[in-house]
């Protein structure tokens, strides 16, 4: 996987795990088992890895952190097609936030006033029986979310005490459950590289003046590798704000 050889490679004070459900394909499951034995970084749940089970996967991630990561100061959840500027991320957490960790932190590119999609042509179509309101509460798009440990624990506990599970995981966990627990999202949109700057970086080797922690979502493997090569070739600053 490209993440292991780029921003998620072995580095001090960072542990990277890959969370997934099970596969109904025997050959695929064998490959997952082999990968898990080789790298010891795969967490697999007893549910099919399909889109409608993303909420189960998200909850399983929170559970794993709660029970197996007592020393974690921060928890970052991303998709596998995301780029993280890990050298600057580490400095951001230690210098701009705190080396001792934070509390009440749910950091992301906050989605506000998102309309519920009812059209049958949409992959995210939601029936009235599933969610009766016109708008979603503010929530964190699931491709990149930074939690403090206390928020992970509270969201996991709330998920365990909730009988109905909404299948859009980021809305359910960082929107609905966060609102129930009075957890407020903090926006980090200005920490995401702009599309134009990313284009220049990936295609023209022009390193941006703007400091960034994340690339745009839905990246190709080539783009992740190129961005990583550029990041490690440049001096990392001690702060994202200076």
Automatic annotation (TrEMBL):
Q: Which UniProt keywords apply?
A: Glycoprotein, Glycosyltransferase, Golgi apparatus, Membrane, Signal-anchor, Transferase, Transmembrane, Transmembrane helix
What is one GO cellular-component annotation here?
A: Golgi membrane
Give the range the annotation lists for the signal sequence. Answer: none
Q: Which GO terms describe its biological process?
A: protein O-linked glycosylation
Give the chief site where it resides.
Answer: Golgi
Organism, by scientific name, is: Dendroctonus ponderosae
Q: Which GO terms describe its molecular function?
A: hexosyltransferase activity
Q: Where in the cell is it found?
A: Golgi apparatus membrane
Q: How does it sit in the membrane?
A: Single-pass type II membrane protein
Q: Write out the similarity annotation.
A: Belongs to the glycosyltransferase 31 family.
What does the record give as EC number? 2.4.1.-
Q: What is this protein called?
A: Hexosyltransferase
What top-level class of enzyme does the UniProt entry assign? transferase
Q: What is the lineage of its organism?
A: Eukaryota, Metazoa, Ecdysozoa, Arthropoda, Hexapoda
